[in-house]
Amino acid sequence: MWVGTNIAVFSGMSVTSMIHRQSLAGLVWLLLLVASPASALVPAPADLREEAVRYKNGEGVTKDYERAYELYCVAALQGDGEAAYHLGSMHMNGWGRMPDDALAAGWFRQAEKQGDTSASRMFEALIDGTIDAADPDCPLVEPTPDRATITTWVNLLAPHYGLNPELVLSLIQVESNFDARARSPKNARGLMQLMPATAKRFGVSNIRDPLQNLQGGMAYLRWLSDHFSGKTKLVLAGYNAGEAAVKKHNGIPPYKETRLYVKRIVHIYADYIRTRRGISKPSGKYASNKRKKAVAWQQAKARNERALSRGYISPDSIK
User: Fold this and answer.
1) Which residues form the domain of 57?
2) 70 and 156, same structural domain?
3) Which residues are known to be catalytic?
């Protein structure tokens, strides 16, 4: 294939270098995640709100409205009314995005439903007759989300686990084909086909809830990544066959299902990366010209490194 030996699920950075890339709160959470897989869901809404405020106001960090919005969104998706209120304020005041009274009203209504008592007063500050609208950048949880909604959730949540969204989306495509109601003959359920024991292990209280299902699956992927030193093929094999089988065989188990499973996800993942990050294998027209082929590969590698510098974890090898 077109790249080396494995895909890095995690960035591979040392803890020291990560300090320069993440807030202290984010680093502490990551260390807790590694140490305690049973509690490896996203941080509590209150912690997310606190970090969002820091980014919105530039308190100890560079002001970043988009980062603040993402943090508020993840908190709101967990049912936090105060976070929903802040999202409404960002839309109403045009903080980091164009002012939109309809989206603001939608979030204030949601905040009120979630128990934020101050949200109802904000309706009075909006133009009379404003009809609230759903926010496509932060779609609320529903029992049967469409693929676009699932993709948005994954893009929001995966970085909190140190995972590449494209890897998670590739796994979902193979596991459930984006069907939140999927159920296997072995009783694996939901988007990431969690077994009840795995769901319980990673703190999922409602395996049928699509967002919790995603969180539990990502928490397990994060644990497997740490367990297998970021070797993605082993991580995927462990997700399919169990970490004990991978350890027993000192590699991908010799099961036809597992080997095909890993191969399919790696292929889909590579396609996602090429499409969404602009990383592509050298064109076949260069096959007879080693020099041009090498140049093309170096260009693809440079694009990969730029993607990594933006905080995304990219594949550095598949064999």
Assistant:
1) 36-123
2) no
3) 175
